[in-house]
Amino acid sequence: DSGVTQTPKHLITATGQRVTLRCSPRSGDLSVYWYQQSLDQGLQFLIQYYNGEERAKGNILERFSAQQFPDLHSELNLSSLELGDSALYFCASSSPDRGAEAFFGQGTRLTVV
Amino acid sequence: DQQVKQNSPSLSVQEGRISILNCDYTNSMFDYFLWYKKYPAEGPTFLISISSIKDKNEDGRFTVFLNKSAKHLSLHIVPSQPGDSAVYFCAVSNTGNQFYFGTGTSLTVIP
Predict the structure, then answer these.
(1) Mutation for B interface: A9, A30, A43, most B CBs within 10 A
(2) A55: region left, alpha or beta (phi > 0 left; psi from -120 to 50 alpha)
C-alpha cells in the first residue's frame, strides 16, 4: 500500500460530460502529481501541485484543470469529455524532505462512451 | 518534448538470466533517477533509484547504473524470476520534483 488513495477506481461517462477525479496523498506529502496513461502507453505528466500551488504543467489540455486543497488532497477535473480521453489517470505524491521518490495511487480508469 | 526515452518496448529473458533495461534522458539538469515497476491494473511501484553523484546503486537482485556523460540509465535484474514480469518505467527528477517518465519496457521472464 503506497498510502496514496484515488477515487473512484472506475468511471464510465458519456462524451461531453464532466468528471472529477480525487486523490489523497500520503500523509505529510506536499506535492501531488497527475499522470495520464492511454492504451498501454507511457505515463504522460499532466500537472504538479505543491502545498496548494501549481508548480509545473505538462501536456494538460485546456479542458482539464486541477487544484490542491488546504488539506493537501487534489482533484483533477475533466470537462467536455471526448472518446480519446479514455485512459488511466494516476496520482502520485512526494515530499523532497522524505526522500526523492514519488508514490502512486492505484489509478482511476476513465471510459468515455 | 520527450525528456526520457525507453527505446525497447519489450524484452524477453529466460528465468535465471540477466535482464537489462535501458533508458536515455535528454536534460543534464536532472539529478535523481528512478525505476518503477507496474503490473496491469495497478499503479507504478517504486523499485530503485540513484542520485547523480553516484554511478551505481544495488538492492538485492536489482542494480541501477548511471552514465551521466552519455545521459544513460540502465536497470539490471539478476537472476531474473517469472514474478519480475511487468512493465518497467524509468523516471528522472529534479531532487524529488517534476518526475518525468519513459514509455516503459514490458519485461517477460520465461520459466
Answers:
(1) A43
(2) alpha
